[in-house]
Each structure stands twice: as C-alpha cells, then as structure tokens.
Specification:
The chain is an alpha/beta fold. It has helices spanning 7-16, 29-34, 37-41, 59-71, 86-90, 101-114, 133-147, 166-169, 177-186, 201-207, 218-222, 230-235, 244-260, 266-269, 282-290, 299-313, 326-329, and strands at 22-23, 27-28, 50-55, 76-81, 119-127, 151-159, 191-195, 213-215. It has 17 helices and 8 strands.
Length: 333
C-alpha cells in the first residue's frame, strides 16, 4: 500500500469506520533516520487507532524508529516482512526477511525494548520455493520465542522474489488460508490476523471463526463504501455515516480545511475516487474530481460540479456547465 495509505487516505477511511485499525504505508528506517520525520510520521488525531508500519532489518535502526513511533503517538508499530518489491529487496528487508527469522526476532526484541507499544509482524506464508507449512511455522515460532512477538499479520500467499512483479505477487501465488488457521491452532496463545484476497463482509465473518482478525487492503481502498457496515457488524457500534452523500460532505470539509491552511486539496481527494463505484453517474463524478483543470478551484466548487455530473448521469439533473479552460485557471502573472 505504499503511496496509497497516507494520512489523507487514513482520514477518509476513518470517516467510514471509527473502530477498524488503520496502518500507514510502509516507511523505511532510513527515511526516518535520515529524512523528513514530520512528513513521514505526522497524522491527524482522528486517525486513532493507527499503526506505523516499518521497513528495515537492522535491530538498532528498528529500535530507534520504534521510539519515534511512540513519541509521535502511534498505537502500534509493525515490522513488514512481506513486501516483495525489487526496491525493498535491494534494501534487504520486506519478504527477504522471512529467510532470516533469527534477525527478525532480534529486531522485534530491540523494538519492544525501545518502546512500550505493541510490536507486530506482517509476513507471507513463504518466500520463493520455501513455502511449506513447516517453514512458516518455524518462522512464527522463532520470532515469537526470540523476539517476544505475540501478534502476526499473515498474507496467506508466498512471495516469489524472482520472476514475478509486485502486482503478480498479489495475485498468482495461491492463497492458502488453511495455513493461517493451522498457525492459530498450533500457537493458540498468539494472535493471528489474516490478509490477502478478502473482498466481502461475508468472507471476513467466515475467517473470524478461525482466527483473531482480518486485514483488508486494496479492496478497502478501491471500494471504500465496502467498509460502511464494519462498525455495526464487527464492533457492535453505530456506523459514523449513513450515506455516501454524508461521507462526501465529511471529506469535503477536510479538503476545505487543507485549502484554508494553504495546502492543495487534490492529493487528498484522489483517495475518495472509488466512493461512488457501482452506482449510476460514478464515472462522471470521478472525471470531474480528476480533471487537472479544476485543481486550482475551491474544493466546494469542484464538489458542486461533480455532484451535478453524477446526477446528470442518472438523468436527475442537467449536465454540469462547460469546464473552465486551463488558461482561466492559471494564477495571474
């Protein structure tokens, strides 16, 4: 979810569900230790509970970043041992770490020593040709014993580091949900969260019969309204918004707040483009919000045009007026 689940995305998702735990995009230890810390770690108070996901392998660096996570007010710090991208492989972390369970255990131990936050690990069920149940079982056992980790988020696919792109790694290695259920049976004192290929409330409910939690990534991003019933269905709480219109209004208030602070609203608005997916007029609505010619207008005006376009797509309103030409939107010289 790198470049996707930034603070604006998480704010939008929090408007839909108050109780689901949100995770940052993976932030490397190098970016925090040698880069712009506020840019990577700042978040909206409304995002709680929120976890910082780290990418790295050196225990001392992970410990330093875990301390930063606590100082900045995160609720959890998570070590990514599942990302298969070539960039991550070059840094010798992500899914590569599944072949170095002892190093992962040492890293988790250092993080736990450095902060009082829960330290969790996200991983695959295997890496390359090491994809037997015994392999992932040994990985979990080593990290739990050596590092003291008690929560494992398991993407129920192997990572094939040679021959597959990151996209193919999310789709081609077969899902083996039974491995995750078996881990829970073999390590009943530990908590296991299942990830990978889950795209309906019914699937979530079915998996919760075997394990402790479910993580949903790309489906939640592309179909955000799919989260609308999660608070009621899985947490026994009232839903924070009842309609897509109310959700759009809440995000519009956020975009207007950004604009009042002198920040562009477009980087935040991109995360809500899936809001009306599957409904009449959704494509026209997306086109307006995505139109680069409108990005210097107030977000309220773009919202007005987008709604008019959506309703026109349903035959409920006249088409929106002709969009301004680029020259009309350029700042005066």
């Amino acid at each position: 979810m790198m470049d996707w689940t930034d603070r604006h995305c998480r704010y939008f998702h929090r408007l839909i569900t108050c109780h689901t735990r949100l995770y940052t995009e993976m932030v490397t230890t190098g970016a925090l230790l040698h880069g712009d810390v506020p840019r990577h770690l700042d978040f909206n108070v409304e995002e709680h509970p929120v976890a910082l996901q780290l990418g790295g392998s050196e225990p001392a660096d992970l410990a330093a970043c875990a301390r930063l996570a606590q100082e900045w007010g995160y609720d959890e710090v998570n070590l990514n041992c599942g990302c298969p991208s070539p960039r991550v492989q070059r840094g010798a972390f992500g899914a590569c770490l599944m072949s170095e369970a002892g190093l992962v255990g040492d890293g988790v131990a250092a993080m736990r020593e450095a902060c009082s936050l829960p330290v969790t690990v996200k991983h695959r069920i295997g890496v390359d040709r090491q994809d037997s149940y015994d392999f992932v079982c040994d990985f979990v056992g080593t990290v739990a014993q050596r590092g003291g980790c008690s929560v494992f988020i398991v993407h129920a696919r192997s990572a094939w580091l040679e021959g597959l792109s990151p996209k193919e790694n999310r789709e081609l290695p077969p899902l083996r949900y039974g491995f995750v259920a078996r881990l829970k049976a073999d390590f009943p004192a530990l908590s296991f969260v299942l990830n990978g290929g889950v795209n309906s409330d019914e699937q979530i409910e079915a998996h919760l019969g075997d394990i402790d939690g479910v993580m949903v990534g790309r489906h939640a991003y592309h179909e955000p309204w799919a989260m609308a019933d999660w608070d009621r269905r899985f947490f026994g709480a009232a839903a924070p918004v009842a309609t897509r219109e109310a959700l759009e209004d809440g995000m519009l208030a956020y975009l207007s707040r950004l604009q009042a602070q002198g920040q562009p609203w477009a980087p935040a608005a991109r995360h809500m483009l899936g809001l009306w997916n599957g409904t009449p007029g959704a494509r026209r609505w997306r086109q307006v919000w995505s139109d680069r010619r409108l990005k210097l207008l107030p977000a309220t005006e773009v919202a007005r045009q987008a709604t008019a376009a959506r309703l026109a797509g349903q035959g409920l309103a006249p088409a929106s007026p002709t969009l301004p030409q680029p020259a009309q939107l350029e700042p005066s010289s």
